[in-house]
Design a protein that fits this description.
Layout (H helix, E strand, L loop, with lengths): L22 H8 L12 E2 L10 H9 L5 E2 L4 H16 L13 H22 L8
Helix pairs in contact: 1-3, 3-4
């Protein structure tokens, strides 16, 4: 194979089978009907002016309901988390790649948080949450 030869690869999103699944259904499939990722803070400052981990930031988030926003992944991030978990449970690799600024860091951290939560749930109940049970 010459390095200049064109490789005709068949690329896919990897989530085609989930394209009709709603955000609400994804939360249930993950086992989080309260629409909250485990170990994540519930609120965020949309203007990014406060440190949510400082005492002042925690107080601001608690006392400014008209200024804060829920910290939740968007559909494409949530479906990515679900798909990465599917691949992890299947023992298969996954490659997460999309445009800059679409939230890959949130997806990876969300996946790690879910795995940690699932391990704890399995230890306590002998069962994984959501579809993974």
């Amino acid at each position: 194979l010459d390095l200049d030869d064109r490789i005709d690869a068949e690329w896919r999103e990897g989530v085609e089978a989930l394209s009709k699944v709603t955000e609400e259904q994804l939360w249930r499939k993950l086992g989080f009907p309260d629409r909250q990722l485990p170990f994540f803070q519930r609120w965020t400052d949309p203007d990014d002016l406060i440190d949510p981990w400082s005492e002042e930031g925690k107080a601001w988030l608690a006392n400014m309901p008209d200024k804060r926003e829920p910290l939740q992944p968007r559909w494409h991030q949530l479906v990515g988390i679900y798909r990465m978990l599917e691949r992890a449970f299947e023992g298969k690799p996954v490659l997460l790649m999309d445009g800059v600024g679409l939230g890959k860091t949130l997806q990876v951290l969300g996946t790690i948080a879910c795995i940690a939560y699932y391990r704890r749930a399995f230890t306590l109940k002998g069962l994984f949450p959501g579809d993974f049970g």
